[in-house]
Specification:
By secondary structure, the protein is an alpha/beta fold. The chain has a single domain, classed as 3-Layer(aba) Sandwich (Rossmann fold). β5, α5 and β6 form a beta-alpha-beta unit. The protein contains 9 helices and 9 strands. The protein has a 9-stranded mixed beta sheet, sandwiched between helices. It is globular and about 50 Å long.
Length: 323
Amino acid sequence: MKSRFAAGIAGVALVAVSTMASGQEGAPGAPDFAQAMAEANKVPDTPGDGPYPATMELDPRLPDHVIYRPADLRPFAGGKLGVFAWGNGGCADDGASQRQQLAEIASYGYLVIAPGKWRSGPNAKVGAEPQRTPPSGERLPPPATSADDVREGLDFALAENARAGSKYAALIDSKAVAVGGFSCGGLQALSLAADPRISTLVVQNSGIFNSPTESIGGMTVSKETLKTIRTPVLYLLGGPDDIAFPNGSDDVKRIDQVPLAFVNLPYGHGGTYGKPMGGSAAGIVVDWLEWRLRHNTGAARTFVGANCRLCVNPETTIETKNF
C-alpha cells in the first residue's frame, strides 16, 4: 500500500486558520475569526482520497455528533472497520470543524465520530456556534464539549457493532480503535488515555498546560494524566510557531512508558486542517493509524527505519522513542 503521506506531501501549502478554535490560547479579534471561518467554510466537503470514498452524516441514535464513514460499508464485512473518536479544536460544539481531515481518515476505512453539531462547510445543517465568553477571572471560556462527549462516540461505535439491525453490525474491528484531537480536543483525547478499548492516541497541535494558571475554565487536565497513557502515541505539532509547542514538547519529554513519535510540521497552530483532504498532517495521521492499528509495514516507513519518509523530508522533523 502506498503511504498516504508520501502520496500527498508534495502539493501542500500553508492555510491560515483562526487560532480561536484552539483552546490553547486567547481568542483573536472577532473580525479575524469571522474572516477565517468564512474562508474555511468555502472549501467543499470531500470524500477523501483513500480507497473507500467517505460520507458525512448525522445519526438520530447519536445526537449532537457528526459521523464520517466509508459510503459503501460492504468491504468491511467480518469486522474490518476501524474507529477514530475525535476531539474538536477549541472543544467546539462543531463536529464539522475539522471535516477535511476527518473525511480523509474515514476514506481509509474508519468510522470517525466527532462531538457537536454540523456547523461548518457549505453543507452545514445549523448556524455557527454561539460565541462563548470567559467567566469572570478566567482567560478562556469553558469548553462546549467534554471528554465524555468524545467517549460517547466510542461507546456508540462499539455498541452498534453488536446491535442487531445496525448498519455497523459485525463491521467494527474492536482492536483497531483510536482517539485523537486538535488543541483543546487533544486534551480531551489525553483524558481518555486509560480507556482499555483504545489502541493508540493522536495528539495534534496540543499538549497539557505547563502551568495550572494557563488552564481552560471548567476543564482540568494535569501532567499526571500522562502517566495513564498505555498505548503508542503520536504528537503532531506545528513547530516552534505553534502556540501549543511548549506544552506538547514538554509532554513528550515526560512520556517514557510507551512508544512515541513526535512530529513537527512548520504550519503553526492552524496546521493543515482547512486544506482539501486535510493536507499533509492528515496523511501523517492516516499512516500512523494504518501502522498502529492495522500493522501496515508500508505505513510504518513514514516514521521508522533507515531514511524514514519523515526523516528525510526537509519540511518535517521527527523524534521517536521506545519503538
